[in-house]
Design brief:
The chain is mainly α. The protein is built from five helices and no strands. It is 69% helix and 0% strand.
């Protein structure tokens, strides 16, 4: 788990949620549900991967899928806070990028 990436992704998630919170109460509820984990990530208090973070329900069962940037920010944060990208995924992405160049 990369602490700097985790902090960056927490900030991106908060920014994305802030954009929609004023007009959508479901986004406000979502933001409240991830607020503690996000705060811990920004403060460097998450030292081991978490098994689960709140908020997935809002995308899978709620209406937040319509905010693609918010969903993307949540996904990046969720991957990092639960241990980061697995080495196999990193290697695959590197191979794909090398083939493009």
């Amino acid at each position: 788990m990369d602490q700097e990436r985790l902090k960056q992704f927490a900030l991106e998630l908060e920014d994305a949620a802030r954009r929609y919170a004023a007009m959508d109460p479901e986004v406000r509820s979502f933001a409240g549900s991830v607020e503690g984990v996000s705060a811990d990530a920004k403060a460097g208090r998450i030292l081991t991967p978490l098994e689960h973070i709140p908020g997935n329900y809002y995308f899978s069962e709620g209406t937040l899928r319509k905010y693609r940037d918010l969903e993307h920010a949540y996904s990046k944060f969720q991957i990092e806070v639960t241990g980061g990208e697995p080495p196999a995924l990193i290697a695959f992405r590197n191979r794909v990028n090398a083939q493009k160049n």
